[in-house]
């Protein structure tokens, strides 16, 4: 049976551009998708990068002007993996052209921009997806199911962090990630930690932030230096609507840490511990285990953890980072077909952006603030 074709237009061919291509390539092989996915056109500001991406990734066409994708009526989905400050302009143009939009996080430089994007998408009736791929891990789904089933009892506390060290070198160059428009460790990495926290425990209602610029100036790549005003570390105490309290940290100068997207959840009957550095494992502690035998037990990812079995029939053989993107792509494609709600749409992305800004504002005022 032939399926209708969904033509993809990708903007940006860097780290995430390639990861999205892996997602588009494997999702149709792993999931029963309602569409064929066609890599139609790729855009990059660099002609070499655009040409190379078309050749290596299998796009039919390439361009250095992303607006060519928007104006092309053959393209159904615009996929934005360009720097943060460009997300809004690109997404709004795509929405105005009636295209579905897949956009990397953080959704937009400011919550007011994200609001405009979410409103525009809903008014146009197009489907949207923000790239919070860590939520696609079957072990997070397992953790959420255990929390909701009461395996931990009443939830009392939460610790969530996303720490890496790719900005720890003070001689590292100024990048788009340092741009005051959407930059900083809290927006870049803390946004992932916030998305996971809310996925597991529900809405965060109040925050007390502390956002710090540790390296105030970086080489500009032209022999000079540029001032950095965004945070290298963003931390917050948080309170959840369900009564739990905890902390969140986004940190890109955490020496030695490469992918510490971790959380711990503490309840009256048990606890969960997870690290993205070993993301095929979930650790569960139960107070109901017999005295003398209590301790965190390791639950290994396997066919019991949907959709692991679609990738591999054998337990313990492990999923990889690009597999999470394939799961994200599949969720979005099903949503485009109207089969399921969008897994994490622009409205949800706006929610994360609001918390990021409330933490930043709270840090400036050194006072608790409500997330509105
Ligand atoms: P990158 O620098 O590797 O790639 C960005 C690409 O955009 C480059 O190819 C660049 O040439 C291109 N570009 C820049 N301006 C452009 C323009 N005007 N038109 C077309 N292309 C243009 O960056 P990256 O690490 O891939 O990050 C891109 C986005 O993905 C960011 O928003 C970032 O926050 C996000 N990201 C998400 C994750 C995740 O886990 N979800 C991980 C890393 C990055």
Structural overview:
Strand 4, helix 4 and strand 5 (100-103) form a beta-alpha-beta unit. The protein has two domains: 5-133, NAD(P)-binding Rossmann-like Domain (Rossmann fold, 3-Layer(aba) Sandwich), CATH 3.40.50.720; 134-314 and 344-370, 2-Layer Sandwich (Dihydrodipicolinate Reductase, domain 2). It is an alpha/beta fold. Helices cover 33% and strands 25% of the residues. The strands form three sheets. Strands 16-15-14-13-7-12-11-8-17 form a nine-stranded mixed β-sheet. A six-stranded parallel β-sheet has the order 3-2-1-4-5-6, sandwiched between helices. A two-stranded antiparallel sheet has the order 9-10. The mean pLDDT is 97. It contains ten helices and 17 strands. It has helices at residues 15-30, 47-57, 67-71, 87-96, 111-124, 138-148, 185-201, 308-311, 321-336, 346-365, and strands at residues 5-11, 36-43, 61-63, 77-80, 100-103, 128-130, 155-163, 204-212, 217-219, 225-227, 233-240, 245-251, 260-267, 270-275, 281-286, 297-300, 369-370. The structure holds nicotinamide-adenine-dinucleotide. The site of nicotinamide-adenine-dinucleotide has 23 residues, from helix 1.
């Amino acid at each position: 049976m032939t399926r209708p074709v969904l033509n993809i237009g990708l903007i940006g061919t860097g780290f995430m551009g390639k990861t999205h291509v892996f997602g588009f390539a494997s999702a149709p092989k792993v999931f029963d998708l309602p569409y064929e996915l066609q890599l139609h056109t790729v855009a990059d500001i660099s002609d070499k990068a655009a040409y190379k991406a078309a050749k290596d990734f299998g796009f039919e066409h390439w361009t250095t002007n992303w607006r060519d994708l928007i104006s092309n009526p053959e393209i159904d989905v615009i996929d934005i993996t360009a720097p943060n400050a460009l997300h809004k302009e690109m997404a709004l143009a795509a929405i105005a052209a009636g295209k579905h939009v897949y956009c990397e996080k953080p959704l937009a430089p400011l919550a007011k921009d994200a609001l405009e994007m979410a409103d525009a998408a809903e008014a146009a009736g197009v489907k949207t997806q923000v790239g919070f791929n860590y939520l696609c891990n079957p072990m997070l789904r397992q953790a959420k199911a255990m929390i909701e089933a009461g395996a931990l009892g009443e939830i009392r506390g939460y610790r969530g962090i996303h720490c890496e060290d790719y900005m720890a070198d003070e001689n590292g160059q100024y990048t788009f990630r340092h741009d005051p428009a959407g930059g900083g460790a809290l927006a870049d990495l803390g946004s992932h930690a916030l998305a996971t926290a809310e996925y597991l425990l529900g809405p965060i209602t109040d925050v007390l932030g502390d956002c710090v610029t540790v390296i105030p100036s970086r080489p500009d790549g032209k022999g000079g230096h540029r001032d950095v005003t965004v945070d290298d570390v963003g931390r917050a105490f948080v309170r959840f609507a369900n009564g739990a309290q905890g902390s969140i940290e986004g940190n890109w100068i955490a020496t030695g840490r490469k992918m510490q997207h971790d959380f711990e959840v503490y309840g009256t009957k048990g606890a969960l511990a997870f690290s993205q550095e070993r993301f095929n494992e979930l650790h569960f502690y139960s107070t109901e285990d017999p005295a003398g035998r209590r301790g965190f037990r390791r639950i290994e990812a396997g066919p019991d953890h949907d959709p692991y079995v679609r990738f591999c029939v054998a337990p313990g053989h492990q999923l990889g980072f690009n597999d999470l993107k394939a799961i994200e792509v599949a969720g979005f494609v099903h949503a485009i077909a109207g089969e399921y709600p969008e897994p994490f749409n622009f409205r949800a992305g706006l929610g994360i952006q609001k918390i990021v800004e409330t933490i930043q504002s709270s840090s400036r005022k050194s006072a608790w603030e409500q997330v509105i």
